[in-house]
Amino acid sequence: MEKKKLVLIGNGMAGIRTIEEILKLLPEEFEITVFGKEPYPNYNRIQLSKVLQGDTEIKDITLNEWDWYEENNIRLYPGETVTKIDKDIQTVYTDKGKETPYDYLIIATGSNPFMLPLPGADKEGVTAFRDIEDCEKMIHASKNYKRAAVIGGGLLGLEAARGLLNLGMEVDVIHIADYLMERQLDRSAGKLLQEELEAQGMNFLLEKQTAEILGKKRVTGLRFNDGGKIPADLVVMAVGIKPNVQLAKDTGLEINRGIVVNDHMETNVPNIYAVGECAEHNGMVYGLVAPLYEQGQALAKHICGMNHQGYKGSVLSTQLKVSGVNVFSTGLINETDQTKSIKVFDEWRNTYKKILVEDDKLAGAVLFGDTKEGTKLLSLIKKGANVEEYLESSQSQDDNESIVVSMGDEEVICGCNGVTKGTIVNAIKTQNLTSVEEVKGCTNASRSCGTCKSLVADLLTHTLGDEYEADEKETVCACTDLSRDEVIAEIKEKHLTHSREVMNVLGWKTEEGCSKCKPALNYYLGMVYPKEHEDERESRFVNERLHANIQKDGTYSVVPRMYGGVTNAEDLRTIADVAEKYDVGMIKLTGGQRIDLLGIKKEDLPSVWKDLGMPSGYAYGKTLRTVKTCVGAEFCRFGTQDSTGMGIKLEKKFEGLNTPHKVKMGVSACPRNCAEGGIKDVGVIGLDGVWEVYVGGNGGTDLRKADLLAKVKTEDEVLEYTAAFLQYYRENARYLERTSHFVERVGLELIQEVVFNDELRQELCKRMDDALSVYKEPWNEVLESETTLRDLYEKVHAK
Amino acid sequence: MEQTVKKVFVGKYSELPERLGKTVILEDKEIAVFKLANGDVRAIENRCPHRGGVLAEGMVSGEHVFCPLHDWKINVTDGLVQAPDEGCVQTFEIMKEDEQVYVLVPSEITQS
Ligand SMILES: Cc1cc2nc3c(=O)[nH]c(=O)nc-3n(C[C@H](O)[C@H](O)[C@H](O)COP(=O)(O)OP(=O)(O)OC[C@H]3O[C@@H](n4cnc5c(N)ncnc54)[C@H](O)[C@@H]3O)c2cc1C
Ligand code: HEM
Ligand code: SF4
Ligand code: FES
């Protein structure tokens, strides 16, 4: 059977998306031909703003490579314009004299930029902002000219203006209304936006109407209705777009503002469809990709003969893609007699939020400064949610947690492409995706405007846990092509003792490394040469450098050591006094059986430690964190061994040890295992006359049950086997590899073979003793060093 | 809009810790001052454009600082956030008079 002929006019975002949807449904059904006026494969028009702002390059915004057309047997005629459609004999004609018959014809010709019909508008140096050519023109102009004027203070104009600023031009934005983006923002947000952009260096001329573009051959300036003039040698018109309907009009299709279509994107002529910015559905012409993609999906289903309800119109949302500025709006923008509003204006953080409610339902929102609620508000408004639902959900939102965690599976993460959380999570799980790029490839999420990238990243982190960050590469980091093993071998062979030496000798690609390799090298050097290597404080992550945990507001938390989770009245009293004296924000019992004092100012840290007079609990380090213990034989009616005593011994022995990642331990005195050793890096369980030592457990993101390493008789043997295991882990794990991954990767059998070999075990224990011998209690060390106090803990107060 | 510049004393050059940041507190802003490995001193706004992380506590590598909160990489000379993230922080000029290091702060910053 001969294939049906499908012809697409317009090689742009909506048209090609429609083809993609059709190929998904019926890959072999059609013989597809595409005509595109522009000489490129389908590219991401949205990202032109980023190209202009210098964040990406033209070659990086292609959506469908040439190969894609070939692989799908699509005949593409780039740089060829369709000039005529004969609807009676179902054939299209091009400017290069080609005739192509069709069974189905899709018109997706997009829009033309609206050029104000001003005197002088045809001068050199006047451009629109619509396609690659315009973009190149502006980049080129910026190299030879200094002053740009952008006519139009809407989305497109502001993005263009920001781009031109980045290109080193001085930029005036001329706007007809009295505040910016008046179609998407209310006055308050528009004014805030203006202030922000002025701070970035943009200059605004509001309530100005351009009367003439001045100049001889090339533009030299603008004249306004009120007689005022400004100089300019580049003029960008960004006052709007109008649907590109000339061809359709000549063909005799019904045209209003755009090509009129029904819910199935059918025009009034059989077998001719329209989709994208050139189409008008239910009185609406859309200029953002999200609705266009919905249209494309509806059209694809229709052409493939799938039963469906068609396209029903869209709720829009707007985001401005200018770095450093966050604005978002959706639905109703301005108050009416029927609306009630919730407004929050935080002058301190310079954020503004307005939510409009109509008949108890969410009807619209404007956000400035902090737009992280945007995605959620959009999906609530789309489903016509009650305002109470929003208020409840925003209350239960934990600040520390990404918004994605609290979202439902049906909620949309990527607005442009309508991809839900459920779809993304499912793809991550079933197709083992580990990067935003892969998610983009599989689900289309973040493929268009890119603003949801962070949510996708959060979803990855949330779905995959720690692995996501740690396991991406085999090399130490992007600064080198060497793996961990190769680097350590070189360190030993060439006797390298300082990170900078390692980077120089081993040809690091960056001058001073990055936040991945610096701490890793510092660890490896300390592991190989415990006595020789001097710890490099500048290679330490802030928590390990300052010996306290940084919190999201820049304050710190302090966790004193509490061996085995056992304390006494005097220590508790001291802690209480300190908490009161420094007015700590919160006192919290940690999961590791000790006390956390949160919200302490950096400058106060040394005096807090001094007043406490206790050793650091190392709650911040890649080191032994805590040894959790159960009550044990001393009090518990089930107890068989002194679990607290054993725990204290372990903690005293291994405190301050540098390890590839954090190490947690638990000691219980019977199989009930109250200290939960089954999910600890080292878990010890006391039975009648025996101790069991478990390793490689994890209670975090990757729940893993610990493996039984050894059964031993005495407390000393517990210490010995633990030391041997930990030293083996220290010497063989990758930096940031938890014991759970390590045991899984290396295999328990190999580890057992090593630690049961008397000779090897002795050697491991000996090297462990060397490593432990250099330990100094860090808080005390800080208090004793004036330079450290000055260098790390003092801030400068300007006078 | 008139711009005056305020000269804020940071400290003695030799007392600034190398490859680390120093926090300078103004009335309503904080500035992070870094002494780089090559001896140059740089100053940027002490607030990560991502979620407000204190950049003075970040790890310094060459011309860049890594935010301590979520590891954004920021150029301390031109203030630009490095790909894949985007944004920028304000930069400030440094002035050295003999041993004394100052940061020059435009006045709007100190008032507002
Ligand atoms: C700088 C910029 C930033 C934007 N930012 C955003 C954003 O952040 N979010 C968002 O949702 N949207 C944004 N948009 C809008 C978005 O890019 C458009 O809505 C979308 O590209 C429209 O898709 P389309 O397929 O209808 O038209 P287009 O992508 O314009 O495709 C139409 C194609 O048809 C070709 N063509 C026209 N006539 C003929 C003919 N007779 N024969 C052959 N070919 C023909 C055209 O040359 C064009 O290549 C932005 C647009 C621009 C310019
Ligand atoms: C290395 C990469 C990143 C890591 C490890 C990371 C990690 C995190 C973490 C842990 C939080 C919650 C933190 C807190 O409350 O203090 C967070 C929040 C957030 N991140 Fe990132 N992030 C990364 C990259 C990005 C990027 C590239 C973007 C955007 C372009 C982004 C945007 C956000 C936003 C908007 C939030 C707030 C979400 C919310 O709390 O509702 N992040 N990130
Ligand atoms: S683990 Fe056993 S001994 Fe320890 S507290 Fe629980 S029940 Fe008692
Ligand atoms: S606050 Fe700086 S990276 Fe998040």
Topology of helices and strands:
The complex is a heterodimer of chains A (799) and B (112).
Chain A: E1 4-9, H1 13-25, E2 30-36, H2 48-52, H3 66-71, E3 74-78, E4 82-86, E5 91-94, E6 99-101, E7 104-107, E8 111-113, E9 126-127, H4 132-144, E10 147-151, H5 155-166, E11 170-174, H6 187-199, E12 203-205, E13 210-215, E14 219-224, E15 229-231, E16 234-237, E17 241-243, H7 246-251, E18 259-261, E19 272-274, E20 279-281, H8 289-303, E21 317-319, E22 327-331, E23 339-346, E24 351-358, E25 361-368, H9 374-382, H10 387-396, E26 412-414, E27 419-420, H11 421-430, H12 436-443, H13 453-464, H14 467-470, H15 484-493, H16 499-505, H17 517-528, H18 542-546, E28 549-550, E29 556-558, H19 569-581, E30 586-589, E31 595-600, H20 605-612, E32 624-629, H21 643-654, E33 663-668, E34 682-687, E35 690-695, E36 707-712, H22 715-732, H23 739-746, H24 748-756, H25 758-773, H26 778-784, H27 786-793, E37 796-797
Chain B: E1 5-12, E2 20-25, E3 30-35, E4 41-45, E5 59-61, E6 64-66, E7 73-75, E8 91-97, E9 100-106, H1 107-110
Antiparallel strand pairs in B: 1-9, 2-3, 3-4, 4-8, 5-6, 6-7, 8-9
Iron/sulfur cluster is lined by residues 630-632, 636, 638-639, 643, 668-670, 672-674 of chain A.
CATH topology of the domain at 4-110 and 244-304 in chain A, by name, is FAD/NAD(P)-binding domain
Number of helical segments with 4 or more residues of chain B: 1
**What characterizes the major β-sheet of chain A?**
5 strands, parallel
CATH topology of chain B: Rieske Iron-sulfur Protein
Cofactor (chain A): [4Fe-4S] cluster; siroheme; [2Fe-2S] cluster; FAD
Family (chain A): Belongs to the nitrite and sulfite reductase 4Fe-4S domain family.
Pathway (chain A): Nitrogen metabolism; nitrate reduction (assimilation)
Domain FAD/NAD(P)-binding (chain A): 5-281
